[in-house]
Specification:
It contains eight helices and 22 strands. By secondary structure, the chain is of the alpha+beta class. Among the domains are: 12-34 and 225-357, T-fold, CATH 3.10.520; 87-181, ApbE-like superfamily (T-fold). The strands form six sheets. A nine-stranded mixed beta sheet has the order 4-5-9-10-13-18-19-20-22. Strands 3-11-12-21 form a four-stranded antiparallel beta sheet, with no helix packed on it. Helix 1 runs antiparallel to helix 6 and helix 6 (187-201) packs antiparallel against helix 7. The model is unreliable at 1-42 (pLDDT under 50). Adenosine-5'-diphosphate binds next to helix 7. Adenosine-5'-diphosphate (ADP) binds next to helix 7.
Length: 359
């Protein structure tokens, strides 16, 4: 495979949701292939694209209740966005981040999301760090005014980063002054799970959600065949391979879409290694996680990207219940054994070797 130029992200419009600055003009990290057709010939899908949580979302729903369900799904997403946005002064997260150390009563769903994020922070040895915000902000990823902070500044800010300092007081969150929450690495996955639940309650048996590159499926296609999800080539933006899924989520993290190039010529991505306060630079280009729940995929894709190839492999061996596809900057592909038979390279990448990670 020839390595093509990385995306030049400059010039893309950036807006804020939570702490995220997404290059919204870029296509999704994972995008869909072959899902728009109507192979069964019996039902027409209803599909809509809308902007929420600072990203584009496309929901494709089959069945009699498709249109109604889509409207409800969009409302549900906006409801959760209203709870978790960092910039919306009415959100739970905004209130917690501006509480000056006082307890803040939050919605049950915020409590649930934060509990899950803290649990995953613990599970991943702090690779997922829900209080990374002050460091992320110093690098300018929250405003788009990117800069390379000096080492002392990072050291100083890291003192304010510690998920074990988040405390509960009944249904209230207590955050130390100076600390700030960022649930951007798990919120979209959790939101996807909520939408899937809503669709299933409406009797929907076949749907595909693209939540800013997080792909989540209800069932299979109406004809019973699997959905085909394209895995993006982190180097060119083309489709590297296709993974077949049914009733699962596929979530990718990487630094190839949201990054800036410093005056030193180095590329700095938006996922921060909490151990150093610097953007991840460990040889991984992207990590995709495949599992039944979106929130687990979302938390793990970020955390495993921070861990790097070796630790990600180790984590997978010790914690079953998910599969993963890792792409390295030197163009290696590593897939866990559970996906090897349902992942295939696109024709122009056939000369790449797919390395299988076994238990
Ligand atoms: P995306 O939201 O771009 O699809 P991720 O799910 O990997 O990708 O989330 C990345 C976002 O999570 C960053 O933009 C930032 O807000 C936040 N973040 C960055 N580093 C970490 C980290 N180590 N732990 C938790 N959140 C992080
Ligand atoms: Mg994530």
């Amino acid at each position: 495979m020839k390595r093509k130029a990385f995306h030049n992200a400059a010039g893309y419009k950036r807006v804020l949701w939570g702490l995220q600055a997404v290059f919204i003009a870029l296509p999704a990290v994972l995008f869909l292939t072959g899902c728009a057709g109507n192979p069964g010939g019996r039902t027409e899908p209803y599909s809509e694209t809308f902007f929420a949580m600072d990203t584009y979302m496309t929901f494709t729903i089959y069945g009699a209740k498709a249109e109604d369900s889509l409207k409800q799904a969009e409302d549900r997403i906006r409801e959760l966005e209203g709870l978790w946005s960092v910039t919306d002064t009415k959100s739970d997260i905004y209130a917690v981040n501006h509480s000056g150390g006082k307890p803040v009563a939050v919605d049950g769903e915020t409590e649930e999301l934060l509990s899950f994020a803290l649990e995953m922070a613990e599970e991943t040895g702090g690779a997922l760090e829900p209080t990374i915000y002050p460091v992320l902000a110093a690098w300018g990823f929250t405003t788009g005014e990117n800069r390379v902070p000096d080492r002392e500044e990072i050291e100083e800010l890291l003192n304010r980063v510690d998920y074990t300092g988040v405390r509960w007081d009944g249904g209230s969150i207590v955050l130390e002054e100076g600390s700030m929450l960022d649930l951007g690495a798990v919120g979209k996955g959790y939101a996807g799970d909520q939408v899937i639940q809503l669709l299933k309650e409406n009797g929907v048996t076949s749907a595909l959600l693209d939540i800013g590159g997080n792909i989540q499926a209800v069932g299979a296609k109406p004809d019973g065949s699997s959905w085909r999800v394209g895995l993006k080539d982190p180097f060119s933006g083309g489709v590297l391979g296709v993974i077949q899924v049914a009733d699962e989520a596929v979530v990718t993290s990487g630094s190839y879409e949201r990054y800036f190039t410093g005056k030193d010529g180095k590329r700095y991505g938006h996922i921060i290694d909490p151990a150093t306060g610097y953007p991840v630079d460990n040889g991984l280009a992207s990590v995709s996680v495949i599992a039944s729940e979106g929130k687990l995929c979302d938390a793990l894709s970020t955390a495993l990207f921070v861990m790097g190839l070796e630790d990600a492999e180790r984590y997978w061996r010790q914690n079953q219940g998910f599969d993963m596809i890792l792409v390295t900057v030197d163009e290696g592909i590593f897939v866990t054994e559970g996906v090897k038979d349902r992942f295939s390279l696109q024709s122009e990448y056939q000369d790449m070797t797919v390395n299988v990670i076994e238990k």
